[in-house]
């Protein structure tokens, strides 16, 4: 009678822990699905260069949310252990009863962890969480790379555009004046033209930098080197 009471107690405790664990796993699994869908939807906005900062904020918030849910995962792990411990206690009481019988019965061994459906379900959830966390981190890294590449591209573009706007005015001014009719004027015009020519040669790197910035941006967008 005493042994049966102990067995019933452990069964009730196991049931309570299992019911609580299943509820937690259901809610956590639903959150995992929603979070994964949220991350998948962000792919559509990855190339929206004008709203990179807005997306960056959303990804940071998603990453914070994922990290915060580690506490829920720890709770599931603890609840799983409580369920397993109750099972061990139940089995210990049962085996004590079996060996105390007139016809002594052999011990019943506990099942291996990999055969436990509860442990397998928890393991699957843990793997899904790890995959999600890695995916969000990878997405954040790529998004930051695109954002930085776009910043450098815009910087190179503005430098090249500002210089071209400035030099175009000076070139137009030189071209607008007819060739001088005296040696001094011609020499002065030649010096100005040579100076502009040298400036064009020296500032060719602005366009090279712009092209390099564009190439880097395209690589970060497509992921193809």
What does this protein look like?
With 225 residues, the protein is an all-alpha fold. It has 6 helices and no strands. The protein is rod-shaped, with a radius of gyration of 36 Å. It starts with a helix and ends with a helix. The model has no long low-confidence stretch (mean pLDDT 90).
Structural class: mainly alpha
* Percentage beta strand: under 5%
List unreliable stretches of 5+ residues: none
**Tertiary shape:** rod-shaped
Give descriptors for this structure.
single chain; 225 residues; mainly alpha; 6 helices; 84% helix; 0% strand
SSE layout and pairings?
Layout: H1 2-42, H2 52-68, H3 70-100, H4 117-176, H5 183-202, H6 204-222
Helix pairs in contact: 1-2, 1-3, 1-4, 2-4, 3-4, 4-5, 4-6
